[in-house]
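Record type: monomer structure entry
Structure origin: computed from sequence
Chain ID: A
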Amino acid sequence: MVNKTYSLFQNKFAYNGNILKGVYSNTLKKKIAETIIHMTALEKIGTPILPYIAAWKSDGGDIWYEYAGERLRQMLGNKAVSQLAETFRENLSKRYSYRRGFNTSDIVKNIYDKRQIDKSREFMRRMAEKYGSSEVIYKVVVSGESIWLKDLARIETYEQERVVLSFGSLIEVTNEVRLEESLTETQKELEYHKKNLELLVEEQTQDLHKAQLEVVKRLTHAAEFRDGQTGFHNKRLSKYCSIIGRAYGLLKGANWLLYNAVPMHDVGKLGIADSILLKKSSLTPKEYDIIKGHCEMGGDLLKGGNSKLLKIARAVALTHHEHWDGSGYPKGMPGKKIPLAGRIVAICDVFDALTSQRPYKEAWKFEEAVKEIQRLNNTFFDPQIVKLFIQNLSEIRKIYDQFSKSNEEFHSIPEAI
């Protein structure tokens, strides 16, 4: 049975790791197999993320890859999986890590060159094992050019097996890092050009906003690529939520963050198989449970972001299906334990789902959808948000009419209420 599993994964996923063919527990092998299938599915839908599974013995020794996506292998010169760890080390020139200062709230950046990385590799692994996660940026030379890759990894230690697994994802952040380095140089110049301080700070802030939006847009576009309706749905949803946010009293900056975070609410659906996500008939209970997992998948994808935008996007992804009475998912949060952004998106997401045509249902009339929102007041939805929604129906209606006139065709993506 073991040989069959190994042969299957070797042929289908170019697997060349050690665990599936080694003397390890079925639990560990199942974990590896399921994760490889999940990561391969992510690559097939065009996600910008480069997934991988790295492993090493807890008592020392070289690292090896249990899985590396096709694009990561191509980036490293189409090396065999067994050679990837060594190739990555050879091409690695710098490692950036970030931490909060001991006596200050400032973020301290540590930069390690190749020699320092080689000397401290064992220490870095032990720190990752201790904290259960790793977040670093690597500078890698690829085809003679330097690129920066952000590495977000979850670390799991299997004591009985004496094996440590790093379930990671790489995403290119070359533009962002270059921007950061440019800002550092600019800050030095500011010491000699104080008269231009306000203008330069404003320009750099705009650049930072653009950098944050670029990360969001990459993942959002990956989700929209899979179907025709998500793009229109996200546009309407952002506008609806912005109306409610402004009515709630959010300042311009906070409402800007909400508007741009909203399109990430369903990014976790990147991890749902097309056979379920694009199914035109009714879902089975098991399929429905899988669909509901998109909230936590989205939270995992957005985990580790330091910007306010990514933090709000993560909160929205995790909580937009929570209900005011605690009957929602994934955590069953009640009342104001649900973040404000999640409460706002919840009502607007349901309203847009009701008023949109799907292959399995007709679009509800505007007035019928409003009555349904009122019916779900104080059970699914925050009464204060419902009140603001009703008070601003004229603006909501304008957005609804604007998109209704375009005669859009929608394809099936189940919207679990």
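Annotation 1: The chain has a mean pLDDT of 82.
Annotation 2: The longest helix spans residues 197-224.
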